[in-house]
């Protein structure tokens, strides 16, 4: 599987979460504690929001722990909202077009998990993608297909409903083909203002996902820790696995749940996929 991290809050340098801490994301690329594989060396990606209308992206097929370009960028890019992802490939080639996060206009999308027997149901899934979006697919990864299905079902207007329908379609198509336990994973998507994070699997044994306790509470718990004074009140991290082991910092996202993190709110709600009523909605 893969490991990923999403940050929202006041601008910070990417290196603060990529390289710093006892279990940093780059550290997890070599020694993941909670992943299906301890090593995630099949490429990585960073997507960040700044002054332009669309987020910047950097992808590489180098192992994250061995890429000097990533270290250089991470020490100079500061952003109020960014995604980072380290990849352990399943089924698709190790190439830049298969690295997460994926981007469409202002939207970023990344995933840890898989669509089971993707080759068996890929044709039906890709034919359900809106014809205007289909030519934009540039890689082979199941996550990219899932992203464009979510866009087809209205991700830009209602992210939870769109992801519900995208995964619901995966499960419906898989049922027709006799594919068991079709979906596994955690997902993050963002429009640059809010982050939506999902934890779900068809067999209800999802990959791990955690979020940080709000910063004002952490300052009260640990008044002497300089780190918690450096982050803004609204700063949040959502991660595949914790970056450290300080008590009270990390909270597990429950099974079949999605969370919303925005500039002035954070909440969690139940998540249950449902197949769309029409497979190819007409886009305006």
From TrEMBL:
InterPro entries: EgtC-like, Gamma-glu_amide_hydrolase, GATase_2_dom, Ntn_hydrolases_N
Keyword Cell division: no
Domain Glutamine amidotransferase type-2: 2-242
Pfam families, per the entry: GATase_4 (PF13230)
Keywords: Glutamine amidotransferase
CDD domains: YafJ (cd01908)
PANTHER family per record: GLUTAMINE AMIDOTRANSFERASE DUG3-RELATED
Name assigned to this protein: Class II glutamine amidotransferase
Organism this protein belongs to: Solirubrobacter ginsenosidimutans
């Amino acid at each position: 599987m893969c490991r990923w991290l999403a940050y929202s809050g006041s601008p910070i340098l990417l290196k603060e979460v990529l390289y710093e801490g006892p279990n940093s994301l780059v550290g997890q690329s070599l020694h993941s504690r909670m992943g299906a594989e301890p090593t995630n060396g099949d490429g990585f990606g960073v997507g960040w929001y700044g002054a332009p209308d669309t987020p910047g992206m950097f992808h590489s097929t180098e192992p994250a722990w061995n890429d000097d370009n990533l270290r250089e960028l991470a020490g100079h890019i500061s952003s109020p909202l960014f995604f980072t992802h380290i990849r352990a490939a399943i089924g698709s080639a190790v190439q830049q077009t298969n690295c997460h996060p994926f981007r469409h206009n202002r939207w970023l999308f990344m995933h840890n998990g898989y669509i089971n027997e993707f080759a068996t149901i890929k044709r039906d899934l890709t034919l359900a993608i809106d014809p205007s979006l289909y030519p934009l697919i540039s890689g082979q990864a199941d996550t990219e297909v899932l992203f464009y299905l979510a866009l087809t079902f209205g991700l830009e207007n209602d992210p939870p409903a769109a992801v519900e329908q995208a995964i619901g379609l995966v499960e419906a198509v898989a049922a027709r083909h006799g594919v068991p336990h079709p979906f596994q994973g955690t997902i993050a998507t963002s429009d640059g203002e809010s982050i939506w994070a999902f934890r779900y699997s068809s067999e209800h044994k999802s990959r791990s996902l955690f979020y940080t306790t709000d910063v004002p509470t952490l300052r009260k718990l640990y008044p002497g820790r300089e780190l918690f004074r450096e982050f803004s009140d609204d700063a949040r991290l959502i991660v595949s696995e914790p970056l450290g082991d300080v008590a009270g910092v990390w909270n597990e996202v429950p099974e079949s749940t999605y969370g919303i993190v925005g500039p002035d709110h954070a909440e969690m709600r139940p998540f249950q996929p449902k197949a769309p009523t029409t497979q190819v909605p007409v886009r305006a």
